[in-house]
Amino acid sequence: MAVILKYLSSSWYFLSLLAIFLFSLSLRFWNLGQFNEFVFDEAYYAKFANNYLTNTHFFNAHPPLSQYIIALGIWLGSFFPAPPEMVNNLTGSVRSTLSYRWINALSGSFIPLLVASLGLKLTLRRSYALLAALLVSLDGLFLVESRYALNNIYLVIFGLLGHLFFLIYLSKGSYPIRHLILSGIFFGAAACIKWNGLWFLLGIYLMIILGFLVSLWQYPLSSRKLKTWLKPSHLGLLQKNSSSLLPLGNLTVINPLYHLFILTIAAAITYSLLWIPHLILNPEYNFWQMQYEILSYHERIKSGPDVHPYCSTWYSWILMLRPIAYYYKLSKVDGSPEVIYDVHAMANPLLLWLSTLAIFSIFLWLIVSFLKTRDKQDFLTPLNWILVYFILNYLANLLPWIKVTRCLFFYHYIESYTFAILALAWIIEGWLRSRQFFYKGMGISTLLIILVAFIYWLPIYLGIPLSVPDFNLKMLLPSWV
User: Fold this and answer.
1) How far from chain centre, in Å, is Cα 281?
2) Which of helix, strand or coil describes residue 466?
3) DSSP secondary-structure letter at 310?
4) Per-residue confidence of the chain (481 residues) as pLDDT tens digits?
């Protein structure tokens, strides 16, 4: 296994990624139109998307970008016929369920490829990138969010694209500004899905600030020429070794103010421009009034089971104590035994629990390693930067929820969860590369139990009918029901 990982050729890498993509694509499109009714928040997003096509005024408590995309899917889907059992008028027009779901299914299929691209740029290791893509493809939350007209999948796509282009920017020796601007544009797009999309950008802010603090430690400001510090890039010279090819090491040689400014301006302009179509259709509020109305709406929402039965606390997400039933129907036909049609927005339990363990293990390892390092300036090696990247971005997407008082749901964890999966992939890949049989066995066994768990819980991701006893067996915790 270690030999396979070490000599994974580009052709085999791309063929493996293609297989993962086709696997993800088939699961997302399998029986996609089976429920000819709204599933969870499709009652908002599919209807709002259709409103753009019918010029119907409406108020939306979230920014509009995801509804634009779903509206595009509805418009394109209207050119294709659909069987009568997949047609309804729930959006306000006669539409097929496929018309407002297919574009999410297609978009979500690319997430494993996006994660692989991020992993490859982060580590320069195809084996790691491939493992990260495989783990994401074996998760239920990403699958369920992709199969319905919801918005969380686009939050992840644009947020990760922002990270990817920032890493591409850091990896270029000449630091071409276009990649930095593209990074900011994608962060602005993520914010125009939901405001918490900005927490992807917060993670990058923290990395830039940390890089600057490390550079001050290594190269005191008094020893620099001010004109050198004011340049957009290169506060110093990179060490001439192979590890310097890893992009995160370059955070110590860039001007933080310049990069924070470019990212912020690009994100703000993108976010503002994306509101224009919505404001033209709904002129009741101007741009700033609309932001205030959204904030006021969410501040008025309380929390607890009286508000919504699936409200959950941010700290419960790391163990998935309260996932969400997006759809539940008990059916009985012609005296046959009762069956349950259920769609649960829940992660692959084994993948989530192991990812949580991975992120906390890396955090503890970094603390212990820092305390044991004699020369603290040597602690942040290029490889340790990768581990810090996992931790800071995980926390940047999780801890801001502490101050949020409105009803929260498990799907709000999807951003942090992405970085936890990246951390787990790092550990598993290290095991598989080990020369010790024990660690290789650990890596293979971990992958197998994640795969088995995904297959076991697949019926409640896809809405496959289950007998009542089978359904109860899959609800391991009473709080899952």
Assistant:
1) 30
2) strand
3) T
4) 444 554 467 888 999 999 999 999 999 999 999 999 999 999 999 999 999 999 999 999 999 999 999 999 999 999 988 899 999 999 999 999 999 999 999 999 999 999 999 999 999 999 999 999 999 999 999 999 999 999 999 999 999 999 999 999 998 755 578 999 999 999 999 999 999 999 999 999 999 999 999 888 766 654 444 444 445 544 333 333 334 468 998 898 888 999 999 999 999 999 999 999 999 999 999 999 999 999 999 999 999 888 999 999 999 999 999 999 999 999 876 667 899 999 999 999 999 999 999 999 999 999 998 888 877 667 778 889 999 999 999 999 999 999 999 999 999 999 999 999 999 999 999 999 988 999 999 999 999 999 999 999 999 999 999 999 999 999 999 999 9
CA distance 123 to 384: 11
Q: 3-state class of 330 per DSSP?
A: strand
477 vs 322: CA distance, rounded Å: 9
Domain boundaries, the chain: 2-480
Other CB atoms within a 10 A radius of the CB of residue 101 amount to 28
Q: Which amino acid is at 247?
A: P
Report the alpha-carbon distance of residue 151 to residue 50 in Å, rounded. Answer: 15
Distances 52 to 45, 69, 82, 215 between C-alpha atoms, Å:
11, 11, 22, 49
All residues at 6 or more sequence positions from 148 whose CB lies less than 8 Å from its CB, including other chains: 39, 40, 42, 101, 104, 326
Cα 366 to Cα 325: distance, rounded to the nearest angstrom: 37
Non-local (6+) Cβ contacts of 255 within 8 A are 229, 230, 231, 232, 233, 235
In b/e form, how buried is each residue of 172-205, taking b as 16+ CB within 10 angstroms? eeebeeebbbbbbbbbbbbbbbbbbbbbbbbbbb
254 pairs with which residues across the strands? Answer: 233
CA atoms within 13 A on the CB side of 275: 23
If one counts every other C-beta atom within 10 angstroms of the C-beta of residue 405, the result is: 10
Q: Rg (Cα) of the chain, in Å, rounded?
A: 23
